[in-house]
Amino acid sequence: MERHITFDRLHNFRDLGGYRAADGRAVRWGLVYRSDSLGKLTGADLARFQELGVRTVIDLRYPWEIAARGRVPELDGLAWHNLSVEHRPYDQATIDPALDPWRYLADRYAEVAADGAEELRRALEVIADADAPLVFHCASGKDRTGLLAAVLLALLGVDDDQIAADFALTERATERLVADWHALHPDRTLVWPAYGRAPEEIIRLFLADLAAAYGSVRAYATDRLGVDDDLVARLRDRLLDA
């Protein structure tokens, strides 16, 4: 099956199918996707997107990002949910190069995991309730999207090694994400050399932090997000093969 879906203007659109859960089942292909901003969809890209049969989009960006960069085009039968999971904005382009970049980002993820509990729970509910292919995205498809993907896969029973490997696939898009930043900000300097990077270490630190604080990702989902056994069961029934 095809992990990376090729578009002209999207750089980080991929299928979450195929990852193996602890019970031996695997995530079904063609059912849940992750991406960078769908506000870039036009022309042939939009036609390619429609071929996937996506009927639900979860946009994890701030409303002001959507106002500046656009949202997925309004299509008949397409449901759009804006669930802004991040509550403390920061500019990755201006992060101090002297900081440990992976520890810094893992700490930002921890903030999102705490601050965005309501939105993250709602996103999981939308995923469980969808009756057709679905995609969730942020701006680059890396941080907010990577966090939700990690939590979702963990709840499905996927182990940390596969979650980390999926997260790191964004590295294939880094060069193009950096090029997009320069095109959008011709008068600015990109100070942080790790912009657009997504090594496994970031998500491994985040998962370890959740385990240290709550005991496991499942316990975090229960204690912080209010995710119950019924929601986890619905996610597994919908997204894992028989």
Account of the 3D structure:
The protein is built from 10 helices and 5 strands. Helix 3 packs across helix 8 and helix 6 runs antiparallel to helix 8. The protein has 242 residues and is an alpha/beta fold. The chain has a 5-stranded mixed β-sheet, with helices on one face.
Record the SSE blueprint.
Blueprint: E1 14-15, E2 32-35, H1 43-51, E3 56-59, H2 63-69, E4 79-82, H3 101-115, H4 117-129, E5 134-137, H5 144-155, H6 160-168, H7 174-184, H8 200-214, H9 217-225, H10 229-239
Parallel strand pairs: 2-5, 3-4, 3-5
Antiparallel strand pairs: 1-2
Helix pairs in contact: 3-8, 4-10, 5-6, 6-8, 8-9
Write a short abstract of this structure.
By secondary structure, this protein is of the alpha/beta class.
Secondary-structure-based class equals alpha/beta
The SSE order reads EEHEHEHHEHHHHHH
Mean pLDDT: 98
* Biggest sheet strand line-up: 1-2-5-3-4
Q: Please state the CA-atom Rg, rounded to the nearest Å.
A: 17 Å
Tally the helices.
10
How far apart, in Å, are the first and last alpha carbons? 18 Å
Shape label: globular
Strand content: 5-15%
Low-confidence stretches: none
Question: Oligomeric form of this entry?
Answer: single chain
- Biggest pleated sheet: 5 strands, mixed
Helix content: 40-55%
Q: What structural keywords apply?
A:
single chain, 242 residues, five-stranded mixed beta sheet
